[in-house]
Write a structure and sequence with these properties.
Blueprint: H1 8-33, H2 44-98, H3 103-126, E1 128-129, E2 132-133, E3 141-145, E4 153-157, H4 163-172, H5 177-185, H6 207-261, H7 265-299
Antiparallel strand pairs: 1-2, 3-4
Helix pairs in contact: 1-7, 2-3, 2-6, 4-5, 4-6, 5-6
């Protein structure tokens, strides 16, 4: 059986319809996926450039997550220090109350004072995040890296803000008035027993002088907390700036990657409508060509 011979016009119409079918499939895929370059087959240069930008954005996103965790660790330390400062202020208030209290009241205030001291340690001990406590261990450190391509980073050292460091190490071990009193009341047993009720037995200075000394020591403890909190707070502010930069930079990279791969849905939609119209015209043209051939055949009968 011989091959069917088509006229030149009919063959051109078929070729045009085949091309339109190909472009319609491509356009429908673009509308479905939103991508004009979905693989290296579509456009190798743009595909790999876009992938490089997307990979870079993904790397930065991972670093941003690490930075966020670093911020949370430091904020936990700042919050613990803030609570400890508040408790120290209450302790100072008790000291001021002792000045006008009688002996029995001083005994009760001593117990409250020791309880508050233990609460300072509890506050500091609770300021842990993911197993890291930046205010309860002076030997701990945290290093936050900003990029996988560079060594840019920030390292924060921990502080020890427990009562034994805030107050006792500031001369409390000495035998003079307020130091000796604090040393007793902040003892691990928590009792130091008589506490404020034995002010009159402090031979090195007057009761008022002893209380002034205690207040001054507490003030120095508060100042140390504020100083350390300022350092951590400064690191938090800096890291937040890096987070903002990472957000902006990641968006820039993603936007650049999209420009090389994303399809213009409005354009693709208009293209699809145009191709559908061309397909209908082509089909009608084939139909007309067929009618013409049928008319020619009828003349031969």
């Amino acid at each position: 059986m011989s091959d069917i011979t088509l006229t030149s016009g009919t063959r051109n119409t078929l070729i045009s319809l085949q091309a339109d079918a190909h472009f319609m499939t491509r356009t429908e895929n673009r509308l479905t996926t939103g991508l004009k370059v979905a693989s290296a087959i579509d456009n190798a240069v743009n595909y790999y450039k876009s992938k490089a930008l997307s990979d870079r954005a993904a790397d930065f996103f991972l670093r941003k997550s690490d930075i966020d965790q670093g911020i949370s660790s430091m904020k936990a330390g700042v919050n613990g220090g803030t609570l400890a400062e508040s408790i120290l202020k209450q302790m100072k208030g008790l000291v001021n109350s002792v000045r006008t209290a009688d002996s029995s009241t001083r005994t009760a205030l001593s117990s409250q004072f020791s309880d508050l001291a233990r609460q300072v340690n509890s506050a500091i001990g609770d300021a842990s995040y993911n197993g890291l406590n930046l205010v309860d261990n002076s030997s701990a450190t945290i290093t936050v890296y900003f990029s996988q391509n560079t060594t840019a980073s920030i390292t924060a050292k921990a502080f020890n803000l427990r009562v034994s460091k805030l107050l006792t190490t500031m001369g409390v071990a000495a035998s003079s008035g307020g130091n000796q009193l604090l040393g007793n009341m902040l003892a691990d047993a928590g009792a130091g027993a008589a506490g404020f009720s034995v002010l009159t037995s402090q031979s090195s200075m007057s009761p008022a002088g002893v209380l002034d000394k205690v207040s001054a020591i507490i003030d120095r403890g508060i100042s140390r907390i504020r100083s350390q909190a300022t350092l951590l707070g400064g690191n938090v502010s800096f890291l937040q700036s890096r987070v903002n930069f990472a957000d902006d930079y990641t968006n820039t990279l993603s936007d650049g990657a999209g420009k090389m791969t994303l399809a213009d849905l409005n354009e693709e939609g208009a293209t699809l409508v145009s191709l559908q119209a061309r397909q209908q015209i082509g089909i009608q043209a084939l139909g007309i060509a067929g009618q013409q051939q049928s008319a020619m055949l009828s003349l031969l009968h």
